[in-house]
Amino acid sequence: MANTFQLAIVLPETPMPPRNVVAIDVPAAEGRLTIMAHHQPLLAALLTGPMTITDNSGERETWHISAGALQVENNIATLLVREANIANSSESPNIKT
Fold first, then answer.
1. Which pTM value belongs to this model?
2. If I label 23, which of 31, 69, 76, 82 is the partner at 20 to 30 A Cα–Cα?
3. Does 30 map to a domain?
4. Does residue 18 sit within a domain?
């Protein structure tokens, strides 16, 4: 079993439950940023672009996120964005606020 951490995607009006993931790869202002379990505390500006989420089974989801912020602390990554769209799933709706 891979080490996981909690990912919370916070949108202005749409509740999204936190989930456990193995890794996320996000478009940060200083370049692409990969977060894994037990990452050091971090606060980063995010750019609009693709985000990849890897779950515990190794499955990857690609999302398109708007610019925002990422906070990592105590094995919890919190994305604060205005929009998050699942890019590679025809079953899940887009989430916009």
1. 0.86
2. 82
3. yes
4. yes
- Count of CB atoms situated within 10 Å of the CB of 44: 15
Q: What is the CATH number of the domain that holds 63?
A: 2.60.15.10
Is 96 within a domain?
A: no
Q: CA of 26: how far to CAs of 1, 9, 77, 91, in Å?
A: 23, 12, 11, 23
**30-86 pLDDT, tens digit each:** 999 999 999 999 999 999 999 999 999 999 999 999 999 999 999 999 999 999 999
Per the structure, how many domains does the chain have?
1
In whole angstroms, how far apart are CA 42 and each of 1, 2, 39, 76? 25, 22, 8, 11
Structural domain of 42 = 5-88
Neighbours of 43 (CB within 10 A): 10
The first and second tokens of residue 82, run together, are 């205005």
